[in-house]
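Researcher: I'd like a structural prediction for the single chain below. Treat it as a standalone chain; there are no partners to consider.
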Amino acid sequence: MDDRMEEDNTQRGVKRGRSAEYPRGTLKRIVVHNFMTYSYARLEAEPKLNVILGPNGTGKSSVVCALCLALAGSPQLLARQSHNRSFVRRGATEGYAEVTVSGGNGTDYTIRRCINSSDDSSVWSVNGSSATLEDVKKLKKEMNIQLDNLLQFMPQDRVVEFSNLSPISLLLETERAIGDADLYDKHKQLIELGNQSRMQHTTKNHVQTSLEKVKSELEDMEMDVARVRKRDELLQESENIKAKVMWVGIWDLKAKCDDTKSKLQMGLEQKKKCERELKHAATPGRAMKARLEALQKEITQSENNSFPLQGNLERYNEALNDFESDMATRQEKITSLNRESQKYHADIQRTKDRIAEYQSQLASHIEFPAESLRRMEQINPEIVDIRTKLRAEGKSLDERESRREHHSRHIKLRQDYIEKISRATAQRVMQLEKRRDKFVGLFNAYEWVRANKDKFKGEVYGPLIAEVSVKENYHAAVLEQMVAISTWSCFVVSNSEDMWLLRKQLPAMNIMRDVNVIVVPDANEPLKRNNTDMTIPEVGIHNTLDQVFDAPHMVKLALNLQHGVTEVYVGNQDTENNAQKVLYGYNQVKKLATPNSIYGVIVSRYGNNARTIQTSGLRGPSLLRSGGKNEEVAKIKEEIVGLQRDVVELDKEMQERRLHMESLHEENAKLAQELKDLKQNRDEITKNKAKLSKEISALNQSLICKERQPDPKDKKADLEKQKEDAKRDIVEKVKETMKLQRVIVEQHNVMGAKQYALKELELLVTLQTRRVQHFKVALDRVNMRVNQLRSFVAEDEKRFKTQEHIAQGTYPLDANLRKKFEEYPDGADDLEELSHQKECEAAGINCNNTQALQDYQKRKKEVEMLTKQMEKEQSMVDQIADRIAVIKSDWLPRLTATVEKVNKTFMRNFKLIGSVGEVELAGEEKHGDDYRSYALEIRVKFRNTESLKALDSSTQSGGERSVSTMLYLISLQSVTRTPFRVVDEINQGMDAVNERKIFDILVASAGNEGTPQCFLLTPKLLPDLNFNENVTVQAIFNGPEVPPSSEQEEGEDQILGQLLGSRLSLSNKRSTAARH
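Model: Treating it as a single chain, here is the predicted structure.
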């Protein structure tokens, strides 16, 4: 059905002139095309108060959405859709929203945003020229338009957020709404500088702590340093003593060198004396040597004559020796033949004895028992039988192991599937957490609740997004769209103690700041239904919403309590095709979901129960996904339990089989060992018998060979005859030798006299030679001593110079060292003892830290460095404090004055409605320099019996919060610099008395100088309200009773006219499919 708006010429007056001035940033016109449910519409705005009136579902909030998107606002600000394409009218490929903003100096800015539904893209233009999103944002910022500030822009779905603003956030939003950028910026600067100051103080305290620690360490190290210094002094004194020991050695070496030079001089004088004595003793010896040589020649001639006789005698003696040697050899051979003969006969006898012994053993050898042989034949079948049983048991065990492995694999697959579902649930919770800042920590809260369920008195579920599973995407989309996103973050408990445990414990542990909890006192209570008819089969309705998803009963109770899921009927495509029939023909259907749309029925309270239909498109699910898993998980868990029982039973049977197999293996091993022992005994008997036979045969062969050999005694007779012949030859040779010896004796007697005379002369020559030799030896010794002394002198001088050079390099001898030497004894032993004493004293000083002195110097440098750093940090702290003082001196007085002005207006307005309210700055007195905690506290009192209480979402009723919000917004009008305000349906919760008072105050303040342009959207107005020339009321009508008009072209403005003395100019054309 097309909606039409006609001009009402019966109302008073014609269009009011547009002569009123539009300040910079105010709105002049809003135009939409193919936007949400509008094919085309245009709203002409007035510069003061614009009241947009229309029943629910007529499209008032669409105007707010168009204003927001055209001014570069995000869909999230509207809390409706997440994509821009969702605002394009169904069936259209693109649509646009256009806003004309006053430039304040006679120029206007017409901003158009064209949205493409296929790719969610936007095309921007300003005054018909192409522009970018950044261009629009820049223009919006220059005009101080703050769509993200609830005090300027409060769409219908965000009205409740105002009362949820913390006092801290309220102060910041108020500073922004005032429009004094300097005030807000300086507050942010103070917060930032406060953070810097705290960080700087932390750094300073850290440096100060480090400085004090290092100073304390320095004091602790002083005793160690004193000990190290004392030890170093003792060690240095020991080094000085060692230096004197070295120099005393060098000085001793110099004295020794001088002594050796003196001895060398004495040796040279002794050498000259020996040379003179040798020359005097050598003269008499020459004559004696001449006589000695003549006598030696005579003796030599006599010896030459006796040589032939001596040679013959030697030959005779050699022949005699040969005869004697030959006799001895023959005797040895005879003795050897006797021994060999004895050995020959003994060996034959031993062989005969061994043969007899082996024959005796063979005769007495034991045979293998017949009983053992029969036992061997019995064992083999028994072993075969046991091995057959083992194979059967092994096969049975393998079958059970295979079944157990199969069961275990299936258990693992099912557990993995359950874990996969759990991960999907966790992903769903994390996805929800990202949707809102206040949901931060939701996943950690979910994990904490799962891990700590034993701390609760009753059942606890949540967040709700983790407890719900839906089998079909269609049902998931319906459920997600019918339930507010904030509800999905709620936890469900059965008592208030558990509720307070969640609300206190999670924030205290920094897990989640704001915890929403739904209390379901009676967990067994059945779901409440206003209608007993849950199905209407004739139009395709077979379920209500609570029947299309799985969840614990307490969760369904909570969702029904919050969103009435039992009152939402879920239909199919037949229902979609007969939507009008269902909605108008079945009074019990107030909410209806079809595969493409969500329908809501509003029954008028002012007429004859006229029904108004709200329609919205069904969006795809973003948090929930199809897949009813709860029942499936329960079945899988039951199946896992059954499989686990089977596995336990199989394990028991397998253990019994293994024990039986072990006993069979033991029995098989015993039989195998018994068979092995019997075989070994049999083989050993057979082997010993064969060995004895073999030994006897070998010994018989050996005896035959030995008896065939001749007896060595048979060769003895020949040797005896040879021995007698040799004796006769020896007697003849002895006679000849004795005759030759007598001749040789006579010649020796003559030669003896000559040799005696030679001996006397040789003795005299020898004595003279020895005397000369004595003098030569003495001269040689003197020469040797002189040469040795010369070598000693060279070596001592070289050693002295080397040692002196080393000492000068190690311990340079200067006046200070010589003076130190005077303090020490001169003896080397005394010096060594004194040095050892000093080293012992140094070793007796206990120095746990050998690097104490270096560490002490290092710590001193650290103290100096940290002191400088401390001064630097203090300087930075002072600089930040000075900057804070400068900014604060300008910011705080201005803020205080502004708050006082707002408070006066707020108190006056509350007094006009017969209540009490105040606005107070919780600043310096309460929070000092913690500018993060500065807050704006609103306190109200609506009854005389009450005291002033802070405005929040849990203390006051919805109507009281709406009154307080409107009066605060009105109070800000005198100080704000924002060009316009938008408030959508804030009067819904007010009673008639307060609504009338608020409207009167709003109308009265609309004419005040500096009051910003205001848009108030409402589904109703009370009768007989007071209006003036600053108020424009624009009404939107649609419904089945609005007659169609064929006289107007589509897209042309359609004027209803003035209502209550005000001008209306909103054109609203919608197709039957898009609206009701």
